């Protein structure tokens, strides 16, 4: 059945074509090296010139065999491999882990106790199940970047999510998949950046209500602090922000859990239910599942790792740690407040502790901004600003690898754009929740499993096929109630008083009744 649908139809031809081109190119370069060495020996200058040619040859061969080498645009400008390695340094497995942790330990964590309120023990199980599924889809997405050569060695033949999509749609629609993925990625990443601006302004406004500063003014100040993100050049710098973001997240967890432990004698174990609230449990699914999504960043992270072989180990440990921390945080917080648990757990804290936690939440939001911003910049640069036939504008980088002035201006413009969208677009947060659920589900669940089946169909074992099909079906089934709840929220958000109450909690997917009630005061 899958064969008739076209799975693996073009993969064998693509793999054989790549292997043939790889061997021919390798032999050709070997022959060129021998010709150069012979001519230099005849001219009497073989020592120094031969060494230089050998270095270039090794670099090119390494690029062909391992998929790690200077990008084409850089080599075209004449930059040496050493300069390129300095311009774009590789990251360690630890640094990649900090970036993944930054993505999967986001603001959604504050809504996990609310998910336990409506899901009970099934919600706790879902926290574990979602960690396993998201870790698996991340791995199979990276597996789609590789093909086997004639020697049976894995070679990285694709560089991005877009390349995977184009390979799946070839030969009939060779660029359709890439365009769809690009649009979804840009929407997801830019809206995530805007969410952090909204959250920062709202948290600061509610932490200092007596100060004569409006929420929009706080958002402007937060954006001013984010302008240096325009100077980010590589993931190594982003990893430092992700590390600080993770530390801020740990402080938030420690403060909340410490307060909960101080009230351990009042824990309500009997309130944890074995049944679910049918109407509100789909919201809990959205809170839990989409708190683990990091697939949109993974191709870039894996491609920038010093040792890509450590990627699987990094994914395992980051998701295991996230699963333990999220499960512990959600259970302890719910046991403390039981049926009084609010949508965002900081609303349950006393005013003094709440203000301190909100300050760390602002720091976490600002430190989380660089990762999706840098990823969005990369996508936009590859689509519009690379020196290639299919792009519309010249390269943003000069021959020395430095960012051009107009390229820097465009980055600053993107930061300002996130501010303007967060402040002036009516009900933007509601629309963000709807589109986020669609793009998030597609990029993190539906497409990885579908692409894995399409590209590696004949190499998969039966249980891998079963997992991919099951994830695709479950993801599609879970998407419908999520989208319905958000559409309902948008349709009922026309009442003016409700707009002041809708802020960062929107993206958690709460129902219209919850969000528009007079008691729903998010992050206050």
TrEMBL record:
InterPro entries: AA_transpt_TM (IPR013057)
Primary site of residence: membrane
UniProt-listed Pfam families: Aa_trans
Transmembrane annotation, as ranges: 121-142, 183-205, 217-235, 241-261, 281-298, 318-337, 408-425, 431-453, 460-479
One of the record's GO molecular function terms: glycine transmembrane transporter activity
Family: Belongs to the amino acid/polyamine transporter 2 family.
Protein name stated in the entry: Vesicular inhibitory amino acid transporter
